Amino acid sequence: MKKHYVIGAAVLAAVFSAQQLAAEEISIVCSNEQDWCDLMTGAFAEKTGIDVNMVRKSTGETLAQVRAEAGNPKIDVWWGGTGDPHLIAAAEGLTQPSGVDTSELLGWAQKMGEISGGRTIGIHLGVLGVAYNSEILAEKGITPPACWKDLTDPAYAGEIQVANPNSSGTAYTELATVVQVFGEDEAFKLLAEIGKNVNQYTKSGSAPSKAAARGETGISIGFEHDMVKLKLAGFPLEIVSPCEGTGYEVGGLSIIEGAKNLEAAKLFVAFAISAEAQSLGPQVGVYNVPSNAKAILPAEAPDPTTIKLIDYDFATYGSTATRERLLSRWDTEVK
């Protein structure tokens, strides 16, 4: 059955010319949740007539693919996922400026463009947090966590699930956040102590909260908008913004250097940052903060103004050297 997507015709009128619509196909790797990937690429295909070849991969997997295919890419656009790997790809010359007008984007999204020389664009903001299954913790008589340091409590042995930062942008954001909050040496001591309570390091950043929702683990670390979606679906999840302060992602959108379908790629970028397209998220339970100032902010979205956010250093922690050093240290001292 053909799906129809609710999006204003103004998107086409403002963005797409008849000449541009002659583009026929595009290859996209999406690092967002599968249903959001399907919604956005489906809406784009329906409105433009462009055939979309889309696959969902984590940011770590995508960065590895983009590196491996340098000079002969199979991807035109990389949409979504945490911004750090997008910045690394930009610094390595693996992506290119889109030339699309970003003047309607909020300041934190514009900053991504400034850092990357226009090679990546900020598309949404997501706050890092902790979720716990209230029923499991109540049954076991365990006090819920409120802070990062609480997660070292031996009472949480076998109760925590978090992703592996080598494959997950979510988990790398957690790693970089804890380093910025506590200082590097103290952070790795803390992560090693938390690791004693971890029952699994998953491949995907959203998997731990899904496991907590299903009662397969008591506590998860991830992005709060994913947790909100699960809580609204009726799962017994409670969401915590760690007391010491927490980091956040700015999701990235990049055109791959050497993209074979460049005009179609530019069309998708213009579409993905439009207010109309960014307002589609709640249709599939996406509750992060959109980067377009004119997009509709879901009432259920975590409000960054009420959370103690750190001044996340994207330039430093989005660099190849810093990322590789931290991941190497994580492999040695934590995993």
Can you offer a commentary on this structure?
- The chain has 335 residues and is an alpha/beta fold.
- The protein has 14 helices and eleven strands.
- α2 links the parallel β1 (25-30) and β2 (51-56).
- The longest helix has 15 residues, at 34-48.
- It is 39% helix and 18% strand.
- Strands 1, 2, 3, 4, 5, 6, 7, 8, 9, 10 and 11 form an eleven-stranded mixed sheet that branches.
- α3 packs parallel to α4 and α7 crosses α8 (184-195).
Topology:
Blueprint: H1 10-15, E1 25-30, H2 34-48, E2 51-56, H3 59-68, E3 77-79, H4 83-91, E4 95-96, H5 107-116, E5 120-133, H6 134-140, E6 160-163, H7 169-182, H8 184-195, E7 198-202, H9 207-213, E8 219-223, H10 224-232, E9 237-240, E10 248-256, H11 262-272, H12 275-278, E11 289-290, H13 314-317, H14 320-333
Parallel strand pairs: 1-2, 1-3, 6-7, 6-8
Antiparallel strand pairs: 3-10, 4-10, 5-8, 5-9, 5-10, 5-11
Helix pairs in contact: 3-4, 7-8
Task: Describe this structure in a few short sentences.
The protein is an alpha/beta fold. The protein has helices spanning 10-15, 34-48, 59-68, 83-91, 107-116, 134-140, 169-182, 184-195, 207-213, 224-232, 262-272, 275-278, 314-317, 320-333, and strands at 25-30, 51-56, 77-79, 95-96, 120-133, 160-163, 198-202, 219-223, 237-240, 248-256, 289-290.
Summary tags:
alpha/beta; globular
Q: Give the low-confidence spans.
A: 1-15, 17-22
The secondary-structure class comes to alpha/beta
Radius of gyration: 20 Å
Characterize the overall form: globular
Q: N- to C-terminal separation?
A: 45 Å
Number of continuous helical runs: 14
